[in-house]
Amino acid sequence: MIGAYGIGNACYSEHLAEPSYDAERDELQIRLTRQHSGSDTCDELFQTVSYRVVVSVDGDLPGTVTVTEDMGEETTAESGFGLLP
Question: Is the backbone of residue 24 left (phi > 0), alpha (psi -120 to 50) or beta?
């Protein structure tokens, strides 16, 4: 999956949390977060970063892949609709 998300001011950097799979929902969940640098002085600008998430799986593909961004946005792709192979 590809996209872009806002990480806030210059004190933050992007971070990809470890993907998790919910077998009951047949859903791969990916969380994009941001991490604070610890600095007290930050440039006040809103940064957006692009991402491309590639996950290798053993066996069948999940029915749904959901990417949740730290600032609240969510993108979902479902198998069989051309968004997943």
Answer: alpha
